[in-house]
Amino acid sequence: MKIAPSLLSADFANLQHDIEMINNSEADYLHLDVMDGVFVPNISFGFPVMKAVQKYSTKPLDVHLMIVNPQNYVSQVRDCGAEIMNVHQEACTHLHRTVQAIRAAGMKPAVTLNPATPVVMLEDIIEEVDMVLLMSVNPGFGGQSFIQNTIKKISRLRELIDKASNKPLIEVDGGVNNQTAPLLKEAGADILVAGSYVFSAPDPAQAILTIKNC
Asked: Residue 58 has what pLDDT?
């Protein structure tokens, strides 16, 4: 199981400290949630913060754009050092074009689905992406309760992937902790995004290890 701690739950007054903790942990990625207050009811951070994160992070950056018109920011995300650029299916009128632009920029394209969006919406794009992110909470805020239907949704997504020539990874974001992580692993998830569980723990590095080895 791979783990991507979400910077959204870090101490924004001491980001360098928390990034260095992640650098020294068993985390596989650093997950960056970019919110615009339009697509989701919250604003997080933008490119200046991402550039600063790039300076200190030794983990690959998994950038999750919870914004309208994400296709307008492909070059900026690339310039912030992202390995993965993740866009919402619900935010892209021309999803295939956006996915192509991400790959052409040298990043791995990923597509996110909100909790109420069925996996069938990816049937005609699954061959083009390297990862699918399933939101297991409604996007916009950390610390929400896990939506149990996500377990069944992972199974449906796994069936879709099994029919594809490529094998994109399945990432899950929202309500991940030591209780939900084993269920997600059993259902077929490859990467777990964990925010509140990690950064509110007395020992965040140990919390990362706990869910990684679930």
From this structure: 98
